[in-house]
Structures are given as C-alpha cells and as structure tokens.
Amino acid sequence: MLEFPKDFLWGAATSAYQVEGNNDNCDWWEWEKRYGLKDTSGSACRSYELFTQDFDIAHRLHHNAHRLSVEWSRIEPQEGVFSEEEISHYQEVVRALRERKIIPVVTLHHFTNPLWFSRRGGWQDAKACFYFVRFVEKIVEALSDQVRYWVTINEPMVYVYQSYVLGLWPPQEKSFSLARGVTTKLLNAHVQAYQAIHRLYEQKQSGPVFVGIAKNMQAFVPCISTAVNRCAAAVRDYLYNYELLLKIKKRKAMDFIGVNYYTRNLVEVRGGGMGHFLLDICQEEHSHLPRNTLGWDIYPEGFFQILMKLKSFNLPVFILENGICTLDDAQRWDFVLSHLQSLHRAISEGVPVLGYLYWSLLDNYEWDKGFAPRFGLVEVDYKTQQRTIRESALKFAEVCHTGKVVSL
Length: 408
Ligand code: FCB
Hints:
Blueprint: E1 2-3, E2 9-13, H1 16-19, H2 27-34, H3 47-60, E3 65-69, H4 72-75, H5 84-99, E4 103-109, H6 115-119, H7 128-143, E5 149-154, H8 156-165, H9 176-204, E6 210-222, H10 227-250, E7 256-267, H11 274-279, H12 300-309, E8 317-321, H13 329-348, E9 353-359, E10 378-381, E11 386-389, H14 391-402, E12 404-405
Parallel strand pairs: 2-3, 2-9, 3-4, 4-5, 5-6, 6-7, 7-8, 8-9
Antiparallel strand pairs: 1-12, 10-11
The chain binds beta-D-fucopyranose.
Beta-D-fucopyranose binds next to loops.
C-alpha cells in the first residue's frame, strides 16, 4: 500500500458558475445565449440552494477539504455596490463546510466576470486590477475568520487561451498582443490580491493564511520526434506551464502552487510561423492512450513529470483539480488511482504536496461543452436535481478515510 502524509487534504472541487445556477449577472450568462450554445447553464446543479445537501455528501465521502468559488457578479452586482445579502450567503456556505469538518478552499475568480466589469473592457481595462482587488478585499474581510486557503485566479492561461487566443470564450477576442496584455493584468491582479489578503490577515491578527493560484499544467509531448516538434514542446512547456509561476515566485506572491492537471498536448508543428509553432497539435490518430469523453488523452505519467519539475520552486504544491469526464465509472476510478499513484511517487521523490482535490464533486456545467461531460463523483440528474453517489466516489472515500492507495 502507498501511504500519503498525515494531515493530507482530501476532497473535491467545484466552481460557482458551473454548479450554483442562475448566475445571470455575469458575462458567461449573456454570452452563452448570444453564442447560441445548445446547453445554457440555467439552474445548473442548483447548488446555490442545495449546498448543504452537497456538503453532507462530501462529508459522508470522508472529504476533509472542499474547493469552491465565490461569484463576483453576485457579490458586486454593480460597480462599487456590494450586496450584503450575497456576502452573508457565502458566509453561510463556508460555515456549512466547517460545521462538517471540511476545510474550505476558496477561489476568487473562476472564469466569469460581472457584466459591469466586462462592459468596461474586462481584463483589458486599465483599472481591471483595481476593481478585482477591491472586490477581493471585501469578500476576504467577510470570510477571513473562516477561511485559511485562498486561490486568487483559476487557470489564467486557460482563460487567456480560450478568450484571447482561440477567441472562443467571452469576450471572443483573437489577438496575441491582447493575450499578452491580459496575461500581465492577471499576473498583477494575483500579486496585488496576494498582498491584500496577507495585509488583511495581519491587521486582524487572524493567524496563518495560505494564498495561491490554480495553474493548469499540461504535459507537452512531441508526437513524431523531429527537432522542430521537440523544440516546440519545450517552448510551450515553458510558456504555458512555468513562465507565469516563475514571475509570481520572483515577486514572492505565492504560499503554495495550485495544480490543475488533466492531460497532455501532443505537439505536431504543421507549418511555418509562430502560430503553428505554438499551437499545432497532432491531427492523426497517433495517440494510443485511452481518452475521456472530450477526447483528452489520459496520461498519468505527465502528472508525475510536471510535479517533479515543480520541485525547484521550493514551495508546497496543492492539487486543486484532477479528474475525468466519462460515462464509464470504472474508468473514472482507474483514472483517479493511476493519478494518485503518480502523485505518491512524486511525494516520495521529495515534492511537498498539501492535498488532492478531485474535479468535480458533482457533474456540472462544463462551459461551452454544456452538460454532456460527466466529471462528477456524484451523478446529477438535471431534471430532478437528484444526486446519486457513484461507485468511484465510494472508492475515493476509502482513500480519503485511510490515506492509502494500492501500489502499481
Ligand atoms: C478546468 C476548469 C474547470 C473545469 C475543468 C474540467 O480547466 O478549471 O472549471 O471546467 O477544467
């Protein structure tokens, strides 16, 4: 058996827009309708009302930590106007976790922006960091006596890639120079939020606080091992996985590195120019790995490699997301087990890891992919809002309870 460290944090993650339902005051709500998505988020999992029921399930599954996000557009519905009612709601939410002995890990930005913010230009606006940090100060103040783990921004590179490189997600811009500008804004927003949170806890003498970012990491693997593919893989690895983290580290603005890991990128440069070099992936059936229902390769070896490269940061690592969408629950358990084995291997080779949170507790609204992908440990029937605990959830519960998994 492989044994994980004592005090390891075990649980699952969600985000507000994907589970709460009716977040009708943010950019995604407007965009999903304008874009004509087949599935719009609607009432999602109705977790805004059903959160105690969901946390009861997490508790029964022996989770001792849970990641969720607070929805900025609820808390600050208009510029500079804060809703005391919504702030109390989130106080109640984190209290409900703590009553169940589950440690809250709270994300402050998980892809969605208030409408007023996006209408001013969102993350392109010169005052974007100012607005974000003002909101952060408000909500952190309100939750500071109940929360010790904060995640400033979820997956900045995914946000930039989807919204400003592919131009798919709102605000649907397609420009490398805007992408670079927004990346810098997100970096500054993180650093300023980090400093603001620490300042606040110091003023209140509220004891230790741990602030990090949720960084999506991918393994970049050359498909056919040509010099150009190898070189492109190395460059993408640096730009996508590490550049931002190194900058944050330099500014001493990170207490842990939050890692979201799902898959690899099979690099195959198919033409000249920067666009091809940075973005092309293999279009043939060259990958023989099993995949999830979104077609992402399942590659636990990459998880190990990425964790090993984080060792030089000398910071604790916290797995904030790792999971699979599948209709075959046995495959879900294989995924979790193989990734936990990789994680354990990295820990035993010296990577300090605080915890592992599966994505997701519930099936939920997978952004532009709608409700079809099933990532949940718990199945959701969207018609009745009935929750059904899957077999994989029970197996994972056993790991959370004992801190042990079978070896390879
Ligand atoms: C991550 C997102 C999360 C979810 C999973 C599947 O990139 O952070 O919201 O959509 O992917």
